[in-house]
Amino acid sequence: MKNFLLDFLSRRPLILAPMEGINDIIFRELCMNYGCDVTVTEFISSEALIRSVEKSIQKIKKIEKEPFLWVQIFGHDASTMRKAAEKVVEFGADVIDLNFGCPVKKIVSKGAGAALLKDLNKLQGIASEVVKHVNVPVTAKIRLGWDEQSINVRDTVLRLQDAGISLVSIHARTRAQMYGGKARWEFIEQVTNDQAVKIPIIGNGDITDGQIAQKALETTRIAGLMIGRAAIGNPFIFKQIKHYFQTKQELVIPLEERKNVFLLHLQRSIELKGEKRGVLEMRRHIPHYFKGIPHFKERKVRLLQASSLEEIVHLIENL
């Protein structure tokens, strides 16, 4: 593993998990501003990359404050994944992450993402092929297994280790769970305590506040925490967790600050993507930016129906 990655992991960092449709350059930068240590890009199709699809290439951008650029790719074919990885390195990636955990039907139906947890020979072959042909660290993100009857996380980690993978991020759910149910951190604990596992493990799943994050670090030997859905509409979570580490108290973000950051997020999204798409893509963040505000339900409906910057600004300023 490259020295820069080892040095980074020595701090047990907080990492923004790769999330399709969420981790654009604007949101990644907001998270970095609020204490995130590094972000992973949205996943990028290996097939789109080798066809030089501009929309996919645009996702390969580093945030100024980031220590390195970590790019995630997905696919089901070793040769295609290798070519895509080589291309990502040409565009400046410092670390490549292989997606072996996405549970979404349109991905697994093509044999990619979490579908590869059902064929560990193929998964290992893809990882080996990529590692052999790029000169940057290669990491992988996985789940516990396909379903409750086929939890194979230990075997998966060991195969990835044999393939030369530098670290593995584990989402502590099966594919069958999707994003429901409870994250099974006991399996992450077992993997990190396994003497056969020599590579660093990043833990992911249900890290929603500082107290939970602290417990995860204390009860496992993970090298860091990866935060996904809890960061949607809540880039403040990284600052809140670090505040808890230092004070053992929860940090409340004032409504005025949440409003200002939301409007900045919206305005920059519109500048980058145009008003129609910018407003549409911000809808998934709205309920989370203002979660817990009394009497927000009626306003939330109006915000989710709004189609212009002017309308949303008016609703937010009067919140």
Write up this protein.
It is globular, with a radius of gyration of 19 Å. The N and C termini lie far apart (49 Å). It has 16 helices and 9 strands. α7 runs parallel beside α8 (153-162). Helices cover 46% and strands 12% of the residues. It has helices spanning 3-9, 25-33, 46-50, 54-57, 78-90, 105-108, 120-133, 153-162, 185-193, 210-219, 237-247, 255-273, 275-282, 286-289, 296-305, 309-317; strands spanning 14-16, 38-39, 44-45, 70-74, 95-100, 138-143, 167-171, 201-204, 224-227.
Question: What is the fold's blueprint, element by element?
Answer:
Layout: H1 3-9, E1 14-16, H2 25-33, E2 38-39, E3 44-45, H3 46-50, H4 54-57, E4 70-74, H5 78-90, E5 95-100, H6 105-108, H7 120-133, E6 138-143, H8 153-162, E7 167-171, H9 185-193, E8 201-204, H10 210-219, E9 224-227, H11 237-247, H12 255-273, H13 275-282, H14 286-289, H15 296-305, H16 309-317
Helix pairs in contact: 5-7, 7-8, 10-11, 12-13, 12-16
